[in-house]
Structures are given as C-alpha cells and as structure tokens.
Amino acid sequence: MGIMELLGLRDSSDQPSVGANGEIGEIDEVVAALETLDKERAHYLAHVSFLLSRVAHADLDISAEERRRIETILIDAGGLNYQEAKMVAEIACSRTILQAGTADHRITRGFKELTTKQQRLSLLHCLFAVSAADKDISVDEDNEIRRISMELDLEHDDFIKARAPFREYLAVLK
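Above: the chain's sequence. Below: its structure in token form.
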C-alpha cells in the first residue's frame, strides 16, 4: 500500500494488488490460470475459491478433506475440470495461507459486487460444506462464515438456514 492509499486519497481496491516482488494480485493470478474461460466467469470462480479457502484456513489449518471439498465445489458448481479445479484450489489455498487475511475484505466485497443474493446464499452453503469436510466445524470456521455472511449483507436468518444442515459438525454443540 502506498502513501496515497494510507492517506485515503486513492482506493487501491479496484486495482490488482502488486507485491514488493512485482507479483500479481491473488484474484488476477487465478483469472490468468483460467485463461480459457471468459473473464467474468474466471473472476467469479477466483473469488469463490478464495472465500472457500478463507474458511478452510480460519482454524489455521487447511485439511486434505477441505482442499478436496474446494476442488469438488469448483468442479460441480463451477464447471471446471479436475486439473483446473486442483490448480485453482492450490493457488487460492497457498495465497490464503501466505497473506493471512490481508485481502479478505477486498475479495469479499468484490464477490458481493459480482453476484446476486441467490449466488451469495449458494456460496454460504458451500462455505459450510468446506468447513464440514473434515467432520468438524470449528468455532473459528463458524465465526469466519458468519463474518463473511455479514460482509455479503446477508441476514442472520440466511446464515442460520445455511448452517442448519451442518449442525451435527458444529464443535460448539459437541
């Protein structure tokens, strides 16, 4: 972040983030990897992959089951083939671990701008599916999903409805 952003004189959220080593931003990296898709769909899937990995990493560990669930969601709901889904999940999970939350709000806001309420509700279900992949939704994961739902301007009732099918995996209720 430059001095202009720190002073509030320029908003860098609409620009690709470029690191000190000239690396491209996390969304742009996934979009580039999905070069065969149209840009709108690639942006959508990039945002989804980062939000899924954000929840998987909420407890500071992305299990093999959670990573496979992210891949499955990208295949089933995103229409990617296995190799594309594996590559996108790897990029998203790796960047999520390395960045430790620094881009969370920007990515969530970008997803909100790209989607309808129904798409945001579908994502909420997918977030719970990822967190339940290892048969345990930690308090940290549950709280992270709640934060994401609030950032997406979803109602508390929407959150509760999406969480209900995964109730048996909630650590707080065990």
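The CA atoms of residues 116 and 122 lie 10 Å apart.
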